[in-house]
């Protein structure tokens, strides 16, 4: 945005200079036309005076003025050519600055689109993270209830001692395995005695 502002300020300066130069060019063209008109009038006057030999003594100052006017016209034409060249350069600079402004705006628009896309993806990821956390808490709660029921069932059987401290998963597994083994041994003993 700072770059665009800077480019727009340069563009305004260049356009102002272009308007000023164009105005100067128009003024020079007006002066050139006036000089040409005067030159034409002097030429007409010289032709008229050359036909009248009695006015021969007036030819010298008129020729000098005519020469001076021709020199002034030449200078005005030279200045006009310089102004045209400057105007052309200024127009090129203005076109370049406008192209840079458009390019900067396009670049900023693309950056804004990319930022919006990233923001949208971040919000989607946050939503998925929240859903995952809720699901994990639910699974953890169910697992803890299930584990508590297993511990309660395991250590509430006859002959089992209730745990005095936090029970590890290995201890629970060993206690369950012991109960299963005892049930199998009891079952085998009943089968040997013929009890169904």
UniProtKB/TrEMBL annotation:
<feature type="coiled-coil region">
    <location>
        <begin position="73"/>
        <end position="128"/>
    </location>
</feature>
<keyword id="KW-0175">Coiled coil</keyword>
<dbReference type="InterPro" id="IPR052642">
    <property type="entry name" value="CC-FHA_domain"/>
</dbReference>
<protein>
    <submittedName>
        <fullName>CCD27 protein</fullName>
    </submittedName>
</protein>
<feature type="coiled-coil region">
    <location>
        <begin position="4"/>
        <end position="45"/>
    </location>
</feature>
């Amino acid at each position: 945005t700072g770059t665009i502002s800077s480019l727009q300020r340069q563009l305004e300066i260049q356009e102002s200079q272009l308007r000023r130069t164009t105005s100067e060019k128009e003024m020079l063209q007006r002066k050139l036309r006036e000089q040409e008109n005067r030159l034409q009038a002097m030429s007409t006057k010289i032709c008229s005076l050359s036909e009248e030999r009695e006015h021969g003594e007036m030819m010298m100052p008129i020729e000098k003025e005519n020469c001076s006017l021709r020199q002034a016209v030449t200078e005005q034409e030279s200045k006009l050519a310089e102004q045209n060249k400057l105007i052309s350069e200024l127009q090129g600079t203005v076109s370049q600055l406008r192209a840079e402004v458009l390019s900067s705006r396009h670049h900023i628009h693309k950056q804004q689109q990319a930022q919006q896309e990233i923001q949208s993806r971040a919000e989607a990821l946050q939503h998925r993270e929240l859903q995952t956390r809720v699901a994990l808490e639910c699974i953890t709660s169910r697992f803890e209830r299930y584990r508590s029921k297993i511990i309660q069932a395991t250590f509430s059987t006859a002959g089992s001692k209730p745990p005095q401290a936090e029970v590890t998963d290995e201890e629970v597994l060993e206690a369950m395995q012991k109960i299963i083994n005892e049930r199998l041994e009891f079952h085998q003993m009943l089968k040997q005695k013929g009890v169904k």
